[in-house]
Amino acid sequence: MRILLVTAFPPSRKALAEYGFHLADELRKAPGIELTILGDFLSEPQSELPEFTVARCWGFDRTDNIANIWRMIRRHPADIVWFNLGFASFGASPVPAMLSLATPAATRLCGVYTHITLHQLFETVDLAHAGVTRPRMYKADGWLATHLLLGANSLSVLLPAYRRLLRDRYKRGHVSARSHGIFAGRPDPPDFSKRGNPKHRILAFGKWGTYKRLELLLEAFAQIADHVPDAELVVGGGDHPKTPGYIAETAARVANDRVRFLGYVAEEEIADLFQSASLAVMPYTSSAGSSGVAHLAAQYGVPIVASDIPDFRELAEHELMAIDFFASGNATDLAGRLLELINSPERLQAMANRNFASALQMTMPEVVRSYVRSFERNRRLRVLQGFSKLRQSPAWFPGRESVAASCSAQVQAWDAIRMETPTPPQQF
């Protein structure tokens, strides 16, 4: 099966580049998959990752993305074109973003099977905290963009609530709910010897400045600092693209020996950072999808404290994660939760073990296998439907015999694969 994966991709640091990398890393290992990545342009020349075939053909806030992507699709014929995206993946300006988000529907209209993994819905975003200055226009654009995305052959969202919302509000499209997954195949269990030894590290991780802000957490940490002298607050990650300078300004104001700012954290440093954290805190005012930070915390068996907002409640229920909630926007309640957990090592360990057990059920290899199985089912269904239509066509239909021979060859190839697959032993 030939797959084109349209995604931001390292060494780019654009949104969802890390997720795109892990999808691609599993796809390239899968037997029978021929993968080409249609990645975003780099701001400066850098070496591509050697294990991958990457064609850079689109960029942020460009109006020619749809033409450039289609040109690459024609150059690299594929069975599936898979888009890994959010509403702002292609741009922040309405015209280039809307033109680019029409690409999956246009690809389908040109006869290529198209799938989208959509990481958020615009309806779940707090527009004021996201820095949206024209909310009515944003809602109209979001409604239109959602309809365009539903024009793909199929679409996956990462929370069941998102599927229900799309089904009830838009009443069209083939939508599935899937797991976000963790970025590992065999995650290492939590190492409790690194936690609270000698300090309890409270970790906040992400891109900061819009709905992810630090003022609330800083206020809560100030309230517990005297009660827990061996606690420190560590902030990882940089600015959200809409709020340049936010981290530098905040660090200049509050950084000290107990409040540290790490800036961008390289991929190879993430494991040590999370393994040494006693808690991960998500003090968000709203959500922009199934949280990648929450899944990183689960992967390393880190307890989570999060704002009590619907998406996090849904995430805890859907993924069976251990998340302790505090009243959104209430620093005193957050301080109380942090203090209670830091003083309860047994509960911290129980939450860590539960999150790690959750992570084992949603490893990236399993997530990608579920996609590939779905793609293969749809591919076979399309061949059989074509075969059925061919049988109903008149005998004089041009190319009838060659199309029939092609369909027969594909069906026989499936049979050969099934015969080669060993049958699991019967259990009695």
What can you see in these coordinates?
- The chain is built from 15 helices and 13 strands.
- Strands 3-2-1-4-5-6-7 form a 7-stranded parallel sheet, sandwiched between helices. Strands 10-9-8-11-12-13 form a 6-stranded parallel sheet, sandwiched between helices.
- The chain is globular and about 85 Å long.
- The chain has helices at 17-29, 65-75, 94-101, 103-109, 135-149, 160-170, 215-224, 246-254, 267-275, 292-299, 310-319, 331-342, 345-360, 364-392, 400-420; strands spanning 2-6, 34-40, 54-58, 80-85, 114-118, 154-157, 175-177, 200-205, 231-236, 259-263, 279-282, 304-307, 323-326.
- Helices cover 44% and strands 15% of the residues.
- It folds into 2 domains: 2-177, 3-Layer(aba) Sandwich (Rossmann fold); 192-357, Rossmann fold.
- Strand 5 (114-118), helix 5 and strand 6 form a beta-alpha-beta unit.
Q: Key features?
A:
2 domains, 13 strands, Rossmann fold, 428 residues, alpha/beta, disordered C terminus, globular, six-stranded parallel sheet
Quick structural summary:
With 428 residues, this protein is of the alpha/beta class. It has helices at residues 17-29, 65-75, 94-101, 103-109, 135-149, 160-170, 215-224, 246-254, 267-275, 292-299, 310-319, 331-342, 345-360, 364-392, 400-420; strands spanning 2-6, 34-40, 54-58, 80-85, 114-118, 154-157, 175-177, 200-205, 231-236, 259-263, 279-282, 304-307, 323-326. The protein is built from 15 helices and 13 strands.
